[in-house]
Amino acid sequence: MHLDAKALLVVGLHADRRQVAKRARAAGLKVFHVDPEGFRRPDGSWFEYPLEAPQTGDIVVRATAPAAIGDVERLLNKGTDNG
């Protein structure tokens, strides 16, 4: 983790990202998760799955990464002079 980092943006909540988020929390970083909580199947139906990685204090944006960029930017700037 970069010493000046204040937050970690985690796109997707797959197992390989959990350890990175855990290390970020231990370093005092705010953790933002972006995940739509499911995916569209080839037949067009929606397959929903539960989020397993977020911890108390984490922020979850339930959307795909492209759709979530504006929300993530607003949340990152919350409490700063920028937003």
Question: Describe it for me?
Answer:
The protein has helices at residues 15-26, 65-77, and strands at residues 7-11, 30-34, 38-40, 46-48, 59-61. A three-stranded parallel sheet has the order 1-2-5, with helices on both faces. A two-stranded antiparallel sheet has the order 3-4. Helix 1 (15-26) links the parallel strand 1 and strand 2 (30-34). It is built from two helices and five strands, in the order βαββββα. The longest helix has 13 residues, at 65-77. By secondary structure, it is an alpha/beta fold. It is globular and about 45 Å long.
Using brief descriptors, characterize the structure shown:
single chain, 83 residues, alpha/beta, three-stranded parallel sheet, two-stranded antiparallel ribbon, 2 helices, 30% helix, globular
What's a concise summary of this model?
The protein has 83 residues and is of the alpha/beta class. The protein has helices at 15-26, 65-77; strands at 7-11, 30-34, 38-40, 46-48, 59-61.
What topology does this entry show?
Blueprint: E1 7-11, H1 15-26, E2 30-34, E3 38-40, E4 46-48, E5 59-61, H2 65-77
Parallel strand pairs: 1-2, 2-5
Antiparallel strand pairs: 3-4
